[in-house]
């Protein structure tokens, strides 16, 4: 299992490099994308979800905004609050990395027949649910 994880991690790192992203940049884009349209959230929720100090996140957001991957806007309901949002360029960059990862996973699983893929998916679902029982959800959510 560890060798498969390492293999996919190397593929992910290569995809990030091809698209000019660092892992922490990808993780911010991924968090924003994962909350659904309009792909915005409060910086405090973003920092909590990423497990980083708000000051660290501010510096990172500055860099992503300068690169044109995110925006920071006042919240419509409360102009004192800010929302971090994904730009079209940020969404396209995230999608390109995901496409590369999807291709790497498809290549890895290519030797399996359709029925075997179904069995594997069912077994992995059981494992994922068991992991979530003992800890946080594997997919992020917004309160």
Describe the protein's architecture and organization.
By secondary structure, the chain is mainly alpha-helical. Helices cover 64% and strands 8% of the residues. It contains 6 helices and 3 strands; from the N terminus they run ααβααββαα. It has helices spanning 2-18, 23-34, 43-50, 54-66, 88-109, 114-133, and strands at 40-41, 70-74, 82-86. It has a 3-stranded antiparallel beta sheet. Strand 2 (70-74) and strand 3 (82-86) form a beta hairpin. The radius of gyration is 17 Å and the shape is globular.
Helix content: 55-70%
Evaluate the radius of gyration. Answer: 17 Å
Q: Strands of the biggest beta sheet: in what spatial order?
A: 1-3-2
What is the succession of H and E elements? HHEHHEEHH
The percent range for strand residues is: 5-15%
| Largest beta-sheet details | 3 strands, antiparallel
In terms of topology, how is this protein built?
Elements: H1 2-18, H2 23-34, E1 40-41, H3 43-50, H4 54-66, E2 70-74, E3 82-86, H5 88-109, H6 114-133
Antiparallel strand pairs: 1-3, 2-3
Helix pairs in contact: 1-5, 2-5
Short précis:
The chain is mainly α. 64% of the residues lie in helices and 8% in strands.
Supply database-style keywords.
globular; 143 residues; mainly alpha; single chain; three-stranded antiparallel beta sheet; 6 helices
């Amino acid at each position: 299992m560890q060798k498969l994880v390492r293999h996919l991690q190397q593929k992910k790192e290569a995809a990030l490099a091809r698209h000019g992203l660092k892992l922490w940049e990808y993780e911010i884009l991924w968090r924003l994308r994962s909350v659904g349209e309009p792909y915005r959230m409060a910086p405090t929720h973003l920092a909590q979800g990423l497990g980083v100090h708000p000051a660290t996140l501010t510096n990172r957001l500055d860099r992503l905004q300068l690169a044109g991957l995110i925006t920071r806007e006042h919240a419509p309901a409360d102009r004192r609050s800010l929302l971090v949002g994904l730009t079209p360029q940020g969404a396209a960059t995230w999608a390109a990395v995901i496409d590369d990862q999807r291709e790497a996973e498809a290549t890895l699983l290519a030797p399996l027949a359709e029925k075997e893929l179904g069995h594997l998916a069912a077994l992995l679902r059981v494992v994922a649910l068991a992991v979530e029982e003992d800890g946080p959800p594997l997919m992020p959510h917004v309160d």
